[in-house]
Amino acid sequence: MPLIPEEPQIHESAQGPRATPASGRTAPTPRPVPGPRPAAPSRPGRPGPVRPAPPVQRAPRDVAGAKPAPSGPAASVVPAPAPATPQIQLIPAPPEGALDAAEEAVDLLLDTGRAPGEVLVITTGEQHPWATHELSFGDTSYWAQHDAGDDVFYADASVASRATARPVVVVAVNGGADDAAVSALPLALGKAGALLIVCGDPQRINAVLGAGV
Fold first, then answer.
1. Chain centroid, CA 207 distance in Å
2. Are 202 and 90 in contact, with CB atoms under 8 Å apart?
3. How far apart, in Å, do the first and last CA atoms of the chain sit?
4. 3-class DSSP assignment, residue 156
5. What DSSP letter does each residue of 71-97 carry, written as one string?
6. Can you tell me the distance from the alpha carbon of 145 to that of 88, in angstroms, rounded to the nearest whole number?
């Protein structure tokens, strides 16, 4: 008697058992015919029925509704604002009168609304009497006055680099070596946030700075 193969392929469209089962063998139970089959899920490690193209090889979509490239403030580069250059004023005064001119400038600044802590005064020659008095108590007490930042601070050109920047810097070119003015004036310009006032002999100041003020 010939052998019947064990159904290597069973099509979903097949309905019912085989028409003529072999004698001596029980006919298989008829399978129900399912409705339309959904797409079979992919097995782990195996592609699904339709093999998609790798994501890295997909062409960009060119359809309506596609997301545009990022734009606006987040994508633009905003340049940093250029640092403001302080205004420079020159008050003519002889070396022996430069400190008095600086004091008058400070008084005018305070009268027009400037806070005392916004003003730094630098001297190139003899120290201001306030600085001399405060230094008599030691450097610690002197620089504590500076760090408090609640009053006008007076500094000699030799130590002015330690002072922090303030909105207004007043320089009294009241003598001293030319080197003191050469170092004090550019330093004062760098520490002045809004206004630099230079009190002294215009010819000497222009000679020191090369007519830079």
1. 40
2. yes
3. 122
4. strand
5. -STTTSPPPPPPPPPPEEEEEE--GGG
6. 26
- Cα dist. 167→7, 65, 90, 99, 152 in Å? 96, 54, 17, 20, 12
Candidates 145, 150, 197, 143; CA nearest to 169 is 197
As a 3-state breakdown, the chain gives helix, strand, coil percent values, each rounded to 5, of: 30, 15, 55
Give CA–CA dist 173/202, Å, rounded. 10
Q: How far apart are CA 111 and CA 94, in angstroms?
A: 25
H or E stretch at 188: helix 178-191
Q: How many CA atoms lie within 13 A of 102 on its CB side?
A: 33
**pLDDT by position in tens, the chain (length 213):** 444 444 444 444 444 444 444 445 544 544 444 444 444 444 444 444 445 555 554 555 554 555 555 555 544 555 555 457 899 999 999 999 999 999 999 999 999 999 999 999 999 999 999 999 999 999 999 999 999 999 999 999 999 999 999 999 999 999 988 788 888 999 999 999 999 999 999 988 887 766 455
If you compute the radius of gyration of the chain from its CA atoms, what whole number of angstroms results?
45
Following DSSP, what letter does each residue of 126-141 receive, concatenated? SPPHHHHHHHTT-HHH
Helix axes 178-191, 202-209, angle to 10 degrees: 80
